[in-house]
């Protein structure tokens, strides 16, 4: 049994100079982050900033080149099994199998997570109910809407009741109604189960209303971290939005000449649901 290192209980995720290089290119450059248990934490940044690479390292899918990361007191490099038990992960790419029903997808994950066979059915019923998917559970996933697929993917990743959930662009490609539903479910997860949420998103308005704190990343480095309220107040612009904060720190809109959000939305829609 792996033992968690001595670590303040209120901190569930910590990174120290976490770095990932791909050959000579540094995608994540000396990241120092700390996330409290029960927080909704948003990692924001333009395309290519390094957000997904951070998530992949924290979810043990990609080894760091240097530095370290700890989840619930377990080291992501040396205690990867314990980390995997503590986390849920909803990747950017589609992770549900379209040729199976929602129920069958969940059953695969229940086995993957080693949920004892006598408890599997109840756990699956619970998550289907929590996600509002009971009625479609026995339909093939290829006939689901984008919103239903996303909910199923979240359901898959909470079967083992993780302490912390990683959601990489959870609402990409969804219409506003489905997006809202997903955000509400994320909030309920935190409220009902105290689950910590670590997410990336291009929807800054939603990050503003949902996240307790955000970090803005650019070119592999975190430039600023704080609550949306504090970051907006620090700008000295009347009625500043999180978009203003984002542009202030990254210059993203200025660099591309087109709306950052439009570009992100179009690209993701095509990639995810095309
Ligand atoms: N396996 C890889 N090999 C080489 N370069 C990579 C690899 N994975 C990511 N990168 C590069 O690292 C940088 C960060 O990529 P990453 O996907 O983490 O960014 P991101 O902030 O998640 O962007 P997006 O918002 O587009 O998802 C990019 O320049 C990307 O091309």
Give a topology summary.
Layout: E1 11-22, E2 25-36, E3 40-44, H1 51-58, E4 66-71, E5 74-75, H2 80-86, E6 87-90, H3 102-112, H4 117-131, H5 146-158, E7 164-168, H6 176-193, E8 196-200, H7 204-210, E9 213-218, E10 221-226, H8 228-233, H9 242-250, H10 252-256, H11 260-273
Parallel strand pairs: 3-8, 3-9, 6-7, 7-8
Antiparallel strand pairs: 1-2, 1-4, 4-5, 9-10
The structure holds adenosine-5'-triphosphate.
Labels describing this entry:
274 residues; alpha/beta; Rossmann fold; six-stranded mixed beta sheet; four-stranded antiparallel beta sheet; 11 helices; 10 strands; 41% helix; binds adenosine-5'-triphosphate; DrrA; translocase; ABC transporter-like protein; membrane; transport
Structure, described:
This protein is of the alpha/beta class. The chain contains eleven helices and ten strands. The protein has helices at residues 51-58, 80-86, 102-112, 117-131, 146-158, 176-193, 204-210, 228-233, 242-250, 252-256, 260-273, and strands spanning 11-22, 25-36, 40-44, 66-71, 74-75, 87-90, 164-168, 196-200, 213-218, 221-226. The chain has a six-stranded mixed sheet with strand order 6-7-8-3-9-10, sandwiched between helices. The radius of gyration is 19 Å and the shape is globular. The protein starts with 10 loop residues before the first strand and ends with a helix. Residues 254-270 have low confidence and may be disordered. The chain binds adenosine-5'-triphosphate.
Give the N-to-C terminal Cα separation.
44 Å
Structural class: alpha/beta
Rg value: 19 Å
- Share of residues in helices: 40-55%
Task: Predict the CATH topology.
Answer: Rossmann fold
Question: Which CATH architecture?
Answer: 3-Layer(aba) Sandwich
Q: Which sequence of strands runs across the widest sheet?
A: 6-7-8-3-9-10
Q: What's the average pLDDT?
A: 88
Number of domains: 1
